[in-house]
Amino acid sequence: MRLEPIKTSPSLLGKIMSFAIKKTYGKAFISTQLIYNRISGMWWMMLITMRIEAKLEIERELALLIHTAASTANGCRFCADISRAQAVKERIGVQRFNALLEWEKSSVFTPAEKAALAYIEEINVSRNVCDATFALLKQHYSQQQIAAITVQNAIANFHNVINIPMDLTEDGLETMALETLALETRTR
User: Fold this and answer.
1) Which residues contact 135 (CB under 8 A, 6 or more apart)?
2) pTM of the entire structure?
3) Can you give the CATH number for the domain in which 169 is found?
4) What residue numbers bound the domain in which 28 lies?
5) pLDDT confidence of residue 140
6) Are 5 and 42 found together in one domain?
7) Which of 85, 93, 104, 109 qualifies as a cystine partner to 113, CB 3.0-4.6 A?
8) Which residues of the chain carry a pLDDT beneath 70?
9) Which of 133, 125, 126 minimizes the C-alpha distance to 73?
């Protein structure tokens, strides 16, 4: 970490959001303590991006796969950890997330998902997309869904660009989610 964490938000919204994050994930996100508690408008940005993501016309699992793939491609282990934790909490599982590094060869992804992952990879590597990749994407998704896939990737990149320079690594959120899930399963 390159900045000292500010444990308590100076803003009311930050205090409310910090409480919700701790309740959901078991701890505060370190990124909120480094950035959001210094620039309170970022809490509003978090709410806005959450609202946008909730309205995107793509399946939740695909949204999390995109976020994880983009974060992994960009080297943001912190963001990938959050996405994987969300997948565990939402009972999506991690098998497909574990296969993301070799998505082209993996049989766990549908042709449509592979088209979306090719699109995301090309964007994150070259910041552009060739006609063939876009044509393949259009074979599987509507224009509305392509816009949603593009926006989901942009949101992931937004978070990556904030967190990578702060030298954030995994925050243990996926591990905590897996432990919570295992405990819930044992107590049933």
Assistant:
1) none
2) 0.94
3) 1.20.1290.10
4) 1-55
5) 98
6) yes
7) 109
8) none
9) 125
